């Protein structure tokens, strides 16, 4: 197990390094220069050229990537915070620390001040949605799997397929029309600001509902297929012939084995709930991570885009690792010593 974790840690670091270089290289094709974006649209070309020279922005790509990586790990100070540049950029953590993603030209703040706040908001939204997706998916999937071909199975399957087929913006607009316009019992936006007369919990209801409606049906279908397959196994028939109650058969034998394959699918939904909820956050004006990434991309805020991309890659890698560990816990045949 220790060797497995050590190997995965090395692979994670290598993946992050490659991803950071790819993102840094791709950002070279974005219009505009760092100096121009830092100084603003009204700066003269002479001022842009002077700042470009101070930032050494004309150096070869590998050199600039090494410098950016040095700033990220805290090996060298952030050149944008050099007082001689005249930018008045400052970070309360200092110009040299581990995890320094630079300065956001869109929000006029250090990237860390924006990134982690928005990521925390999305984590709350994702956590609430995930806490509802898991039990609903298991409930619908198990009921359908146990009653294969019945009216209940067909009804639940149609519901799951229908919900999964509805785009997020469509279900968002429908829920807003229903619970904001026709029956004004919920707020139509979720800025997480109670000063508008709506509590923060009430502002979370519609965004969470949209994510649950869109996502739980897919997972439920996966659990249904796995449950049908498990219920046909010989050990299930043996348990039934031994006189075990249906509850004991399902909870003690069938459910755990049926969750082996869908467990990885469930964890992979965290990737979607963290970085793939842009539409939901836009519909409800939710100050989250996906909305921040979209705004930074449209504006050309390279520092924020690079930081958000690395965080997204890190979330994907960690969830895959957790999925492997959970798979090993559920399936003793592949456990490593």
Automatic annotation (TrEMBL):
It is found in: Cell membrane. The chain crosses the membrane at residues 123-146, 158-184, 204-223, 265-287, 307-330. The keyword Nuclease does not apply. The keyword Lyase does not apply. It is a multi-pass membrane protein. Its main location: membrane. Keywords: Cell membrane, Membrane, Transmembrane, Transmembrane helix, Transport. PROSITE patterns: ABC_TM1 (PS50928). Residues 119-323 form the ABC transmembrane type-1 domain. Gene3D superfamilies: MetI-like. It holds the Pfam family BPD_transp_1. InterPro entries: BPD_transp_1_N (IPR045621), MetI-like (IPR000515), MetI-like_sf (IPR035906). Belongs to the binding-protein-dependent transport system permease family. This is Peptide/nickel transport system permease protein.
């Amino acid at each position: 197990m220790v060797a497995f974790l050590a190997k995965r840690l090395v692979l994670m670091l290598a993946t992050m390094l490659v991803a950071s270089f790819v993102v840094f290289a791709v950002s070279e094709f974005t219009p505009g220069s760092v100096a121009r974006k830092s100084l603003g649209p009204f700066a003269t070309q002479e001022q842009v050229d002077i700042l470009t020279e101070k930032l050494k922005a004309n150096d070869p790509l590998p050199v600039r990537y090494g410098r950016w990586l040095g700033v990220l790990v805290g090996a060298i100070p952030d050149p944008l915070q050099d007082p001689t540049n005249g930018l008045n950029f400052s970070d309360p953590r200092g110009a040299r620390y581990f995890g320094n993603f630079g300065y956001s030209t869109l929000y006029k703040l250090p990237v860390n001040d924006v990134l982690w706040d928005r990521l925390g908001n999305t984590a709350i939204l994702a956590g609430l949605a995930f806490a509802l997706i898991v039990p609903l998916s298991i409930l619908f999937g198990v009921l359908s799997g146990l009653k294969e071909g019945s009216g209940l199975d067909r009804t639940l399957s149609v519901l799951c397929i229908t919900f999964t087929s509805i785009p997020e913006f469509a279900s968002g607009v429908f829920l807003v029309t229903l619970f904001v316009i026709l029956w004004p019992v919920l707020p139509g936006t979720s800025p997480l600001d109670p000063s508008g007369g709506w509590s923060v919990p009430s502002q979370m209801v519609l965004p969470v509902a949209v994510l649950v409606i869109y996502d739980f049906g897919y997972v439920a279908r996966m659990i249904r297929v796995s449950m049908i397959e498990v219920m046909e196994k010989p050990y299930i028939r043996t348990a039934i012939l031994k006189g075990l109650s249906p509850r004991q058969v399902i909870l003690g034998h069938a459910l755990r084995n049926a969750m082996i394959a869908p467990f990885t699918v469930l964890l992979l939904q965290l990737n979607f709930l963290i970085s793939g909820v842009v539409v939901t956050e836009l519909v409800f004006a939710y100050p989250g991570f996906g909305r921040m990434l979209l705004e930074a991309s449209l504006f050309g805020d390279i520092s924020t885009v690079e930081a958000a991309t690395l965080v997204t890659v890190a979330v994907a890698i960690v969830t895959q690792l957790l999925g492997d560990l959970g798979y090993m816990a559920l399936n003793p045949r592949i456990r490593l010593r």
